[in-house]
Specification:
heterotetramer; A alpha/beta; B alpha+beta; C alpha/beta; D alpha/beta; B: alpha+beta; Alpha-Beta Plaits; globular; D: alpha/beta; Pyruvate-ferredoxin Oxidoreductase, domain 3; 6 strands
Chain lengths: 280, 121, 392, 209
């Protein structure tokens, strides 16, 4: 595998869409955008064969910056649109970018069913622990006790572990990384995109503007530095006791296995249907 | 492979940073995460390279820049960067420059410079 | 029995085109969709529309086309919009509760101008309502269900034969105008079996969307010629453009500029209103000398036809204007039907959703009376004739 | 109207038929919807008349009263549901009770003699459909076909030939002979019934109306 140079991103960005982009200064989405584009270029995909689909929220604005077919859909439903696109044209590489609220609150049902069906899609879930675009309300991944504009006295619900959820639901590939671990992120994305079946990459990304400010976590620099402290690579994570795991999270590949995709099993139905019809 | 590239005193290829102030939002990622600490914020919060010689060309600043406002390339042989003459390892001038810039930058928070866009979903 | 039905249906689908067949409304609608080129179906089962989803699950794999039963109706219409953008002729079918769930993505299809057909087989509502009973309560929802102001095209069949014909028309309209089209049937028509003679395949006019002919670099996704209908490129064909539910400029990128937003909406409405005459379908029964006119649609139009027949046997000069297009509301046809009549009666299985439209376009000289029924059963011809005393 | 059809034979060109409403009722699982389909296809596709068929939709898949209604006419069928039923077949007491409120006073009422102890009218023709299917054909599930054979013979609502063709097109492969037998058993019992003269005196009296 020959490495592409970082500057390849400029070949993939949409220059008729004016930069700078809409996100706040320091937002991790920009880092993810670069990482995603590098991974696509690295994989040698044809721009014409890639479709980027997103929902609503800060992450929803990501596809517009990439010079591929891009579809910015409704809140929580990006995976359903992607399902339609993929089934309509199975040869396309369909990548879905969602936020944590998008993917696990309003779109939680679609997420688990997409994983169960094992559609050949890549789902990138940008987890910033909050609803950033609408002002910092709590999301299903907001930690217990954290502050949000709708949890002024501290959040009273436990949170989802997105990666564990999608592993259980049957995704072929699940990995977690952060925008701080950007070289690892490039790798995880490359693997997920190349994977046949439903690939999930959970990307922790700081929202210093809303989540960080309300919880006094400092600027995105401090938040990214905290990722450095909290993130533990999978091989080490397995050796940690539960006390040591407190306040930390694992990064790396959580699941990677082969399962037939929906399209493959559906071809079985197609064959049987055609055989039965031929018999009359 | 890198024969046509300028080299540093230690024989490594000489890197060249390009900054695009038009895209830069002055978030400070590049300055904060440069492993060798050769990027500083100027008085407006824009990054600037102070010690070209020590740049390893790792590209982390480029990858961690959310705004695609930095590229790290290689100096062409013989090119002279007039704005940033090669500086010795944190020479007194560099130290002074860093502390001046830090002072200036501390007065201006990035958030104040670029209002946070807010919209309803 | 299930095996017998599917076998007969399958055999029939192949060999009996152009011949008489006994079909259920839902089956005829499905066959109409297939005849019109439907090659993508995503749905979620719901009474009384499940037969369409079942029929498609049998027929799509035979043709090698995708069928998927999604996790809910929101997902179903989402998948249809995605497939439509990737070049397929997509359809989903549901009933009231599912149709309510679909509204947001229906609005999305409207704003990105994705051609597709949404079937809503009306049952009693609101909420779970009367799942197996007939009603016509979704007429205004079909027009105004999704938020924001937008045009809507809604067809409403009253017989099994019309289920087929109007479904072909629905797909052709969707493709021609680049818009979602709603096929609004009701439980009676959807479950009714009638003998129909389907046209042979070659006799049908099938319209496909206009795709760009320029090279990708020249493609401006929402720029239009005089027709106001932009050309739609399939995803993955080299035309790398952006699709968004935000109001967008000609290039497809979000805009909030007043000088781009206004023309956007003007075009969205204009592309439909410019072709009103092609869209507004009506049928007339005994209208020439009618003194009292019935205006109706869906299964209730069948009651009206019987009432016209029975009324005339009794010396009441009744006529019927049947609306096959509910939206855009066939104003001219209704105006013409009202002109010079003693009175108009609008029977419907709701509290007056079309009668208010009839009243709206009435010039005031004709008495317009609504006849509402909401007990989960059809209006009988005798009930309509029973109103004649107050009319005459 | 029904009586005028009595002597019609399969070969003769069927006379012009005005709207005729048939209701087949029983309990879910007795195959009355299928019987309705066969009747409708016989009339529509093989006798070449206009036909409309509706059926009851309830939450129960089995049990409970269920019905199929077939409207047959040589004119276009405007109102597609039954208004006054010309021919009512009931295979259970519950169905006979539930669906007999809108019968035509001079219409046909045919019931299963074992399962319907209290027919809706004293004029009702009671025949042993289920018993015949069970005892003579060893297949209780073909009671619906036996009944179809009988009502066709009695009323001529469709031609015998059309019914047979429609039946053969619908039934699963391998059951053709059984179904033909069932049809014949139905016709036979109807003929015997007619021969026994029990139809005399069946004209409605004031008590029935």
């Amino acid at each position: 595998m020959t490495a592409v140079h970082r500057s390849v991103v400029y070949d993939w960005l949409r220059h008729d869409k004016k930069f700078p982009h809409v996100w706040c200064p320091g937002c991790g989405l920009g880092i993810l955008l670069g990482s995603l584009v590098r991974s696509l270029a690295q994989g040698g995909y044809d721009k014409n064969q890639v479709v980027l689909v997103s929902g609503i929220g800060c992450s929803g604005r990501l596809p517009v910056y990439v010079d591929v077919g891009s579809v910015h859909t409704t809140h929580g439903r990006a995976l359903t649109f992607a399902t339609g696109i993929k089934l309509a044209k199975p040869e396309l590489k369909v990548i879905v970018v969602m936020g944590d609220g998008d993917a696990t609150a309003i779109g939680g049902n679609h997420l688990i069913h997409a994983a169960r069906r094992n559609l050949d899609l890549t789902a990138i879930i940008v987890n910033n622990l909050t609803y950033g675009m609408t002002g910092g309300q709590y999301s299903p991944t907001t930690p217990l006790g954290a502050k949000a504009t709708t949890a002024p006295y501290g959040h009273s619900e436990p949170s989802f572990d997105i990666s564990a959820l999608t592993v259980t639901a049957g995704a072929s590939f699940v990995a977690r990384s952060t925008v701080y671990h950007v070289t690892q992120l490039d790798q995880m994305l490359s693997q997920a995109i190349a994977k046949k079946g439903f690939g999930v990459v959970e990307v922790l990304s700081p929202c210093h503007t809303n989540y960080g400010r309300q919880n006094r976590l400092g600027s995105q620099v401090e938040m990214m530095k905290s990722y450095k402290k909290q993130a533990v690579r999978m091989d080490r994570w397995d050796k940690l006791g539960s006390a040591e795991r407190e306040g930390r999270f694992a990064i790396g590949v959580l699941a990677d296995h082969e399962r037939p995709t929906f399209w493959e099993t559906y071809q079985g139905s197609v064959d049987r249907a055609q055989a039965i019809r031929k018999e009359g | 492979m890198i024969a046509n590239k300028a080299t540093t005193k230690r024989g490594k290829p000489q890197t060249k940073h390009s900054f695009y102030p038009a895209w830069c939002k002055r978030c400070g990622n590049c300055v904060a995460f440069c492993p060798v600490g050769i990027l500083i914020s100027d008085e407006w919060g824009y990054p600037r390279q102070v010690d070209k010689e020590r740049c390893t060309g790792c590209g982390l600043c480029e990858m961690l820049c959310p705004d695609f406002a930095i590229t790290v390339g290689y100096e062409k042989p013989g090119a002279v960067d007039l704005a940033h003459p090669a500086a010795a390892k944190d020479s007194p001038e560099v130290k002074q420059e860093k502390s001046d810039a830090a002072k200036a930058a501390s007065n201006i928070s990035p958030e104040r410079l670029a209002p946070v866009p807010r919209e309803e979903k | 029995m299930a095996a017998g039905t599917s076998k007969a249906a399958g055999k029939a689908a192949k060999s009996r085109k152009g011949q008489a067949r006994l079909l259920q409304g839902n089956e005829a609608a499905s066959l109409g969709a297939l005849a019109a080129g439907c090659n993508f179906f995503a749905g979620y089962p719901i009474t009384p529309a499940s037969e369409i989803t079942e029929y498609m699950s049998r027929e799509m794999p035979v043709r090698g086309n995708p069928f998927i039963q999604m996790e809910d109706e929101i997902a179903s219409i989402g998948a249809c919009v995605g497939a439509s953008l990737a070049g397929r002729k997509a359809m989903t079918a549901t009933s009231g509760p599912g149709f309510s769930l679909m509204q947001e993505n229906l609005g999305y299809a409207m704003i990105v101008e994705a051609p597709m057909v949404v079937v809503n087989v009306m049952r009693g509502g609101p909420s779970t309502g009367l799942p197996t009973n007939v009603a016509q309560g979704d007429v205004q929802q079909a027009r105004w269900g999704t938020h924001g102001d937008h045009p809507a095209i809604v067809f409403c069949p009253s017989s099994v034969a019309e289920c087929f014909e109007l479904m072909v028309k629905a797909f052709n309209t969707a493709e021609r105008f680049r818009t979602p089209v709603i096929f609004l049937a009701d439980e009676t028509v959807a479950h009714l079996r009638e003998k129909v003679i389907l046209p042979a395949e070659g006799d049908l006019e099938v319209i496909d969307r206009r795709r760009p002919t320029v090279p990708p670099d020249w493609y401006v996704p929402y720029k239009t010629d005089g027709s106001l209908i932009p050309r739609l490129a399939d995803l993955g064909e080299g035309y790398r453009y952006h699709v968004t539910g935000l109001v967008h400029d000609e290039r497809g990128f979000p805009t909030r500029r007043a000088d781009e937003v206004e023309p956007f909406y003007a075009r969205l409405f204009g592309k439909i209103s410019r072709h009103f005459n092609d869209l507004m379908l009506t049928k007339q029964y005994s209208m020439d000398d009618a003194e009292i006119v019935l205006i109706s649609y869906g299964c209730t139009a069948r009651s009206c036809r019987a009432a016209v027949r029975l009324g005339r046997e009794r010396g009441i000069k009744l006529g019927l204007l049947q609306l096959l297009t509910l939206w855009p509301f066939p104003r001219q046809a209704v105006e013409a039907a009202l002109a010079g009549r003693k009175a108009a009666l609008v029977p419907e299985l709701n509290m007056g959703q079309i009668s208010r439209e009839v009243k709206r376009v009435n010039d005031g000289r004709t008495q317009v009376i609504r006849h509402s029924k909401m007990d989960g059963t059809m209006i009988t011809p005798e009930e309509i004739l029973g109103r004649m005393r107050e009319v005459a | 109207m029904a009586s005028s059809k009595k002597k019609e034979t399969a070969k003769a060109k069927a006379p012009e038929m005005e709207r005729m409403e048939v209701r087949l009722a029983g309990s879910g699982g007795q195959g009355l919807i299928l019987a309705g389909l066969i009747l409708a296809e016989a009339a529509g596709l093989f006798d070449n008349r206009a036909v409309a068929m509706g059926q009851s939709y309830g939450p129960e898949a089995r049990g409970g009263a269920s019905k199929a209604e077939v409207i047959i006419s040589d004119q276009d069928i405007d109102y597609p549901l039954a208004t006054r039923v010309d021919l009512f077949l009931a295979l259970t007491q519950e169905a006979a009770d539930t669906y007999s409120w809108d019968l035509k006073p001079d219409g046909w009422i045919v019931v299963d003699s074992d399962l319907v102890s209290h027919p809706p009218s004293s004029r009702a023709v009671a025949l042993p459909f289920t018993a015949t299917a069970r005892d003579k054909l060893n297949k209780p599930m073909v009671a619906n076909v036996v009944a179809l054979g009988a009502i066709t013979e009695l009323t001529g609502v469709v031609s015998r030939k059309a019914l047979e063709k429609a039946l053969m097109a619908r039934v699963p492969k391998g059951t053709e002979a059984l179904n033909k037998k069932a049809l014949a058993a139905g016709s036979k019992m109807a003929k015997a019934y007619q021969a026994s003269g029990q139809l005399a005196g069946q004209e409605p009296t004031s008590e029935d109306v």
